[in-house]
Task: structure prediction
Amino acid sequence: VMSSTPYIVEDATADSRTADNRFAHAHQVRSYACAPIVTFDGHSLGAVAVMDTKVRTLSQEQVAVLQELAAIVME
Result:
């Protein structure tokens, strides 16, 4: 994770960032979302992520929950 904002892919087969990703194809990942785990001084340690085999559109509330989970992990 190179950003401090969520990374969301609604359809991994159609998104240019993931269309050629071998892991996504091998595991039939169609949607992916993650929120970075960032230290208080701005270092990214990893991410809390969710995946599905179906195309998904996350609501703003769902993205907020993912970010909150990442913040809880950081604490």
The mean pLDDT is 93. The first helix runs from residue 22 to 26.
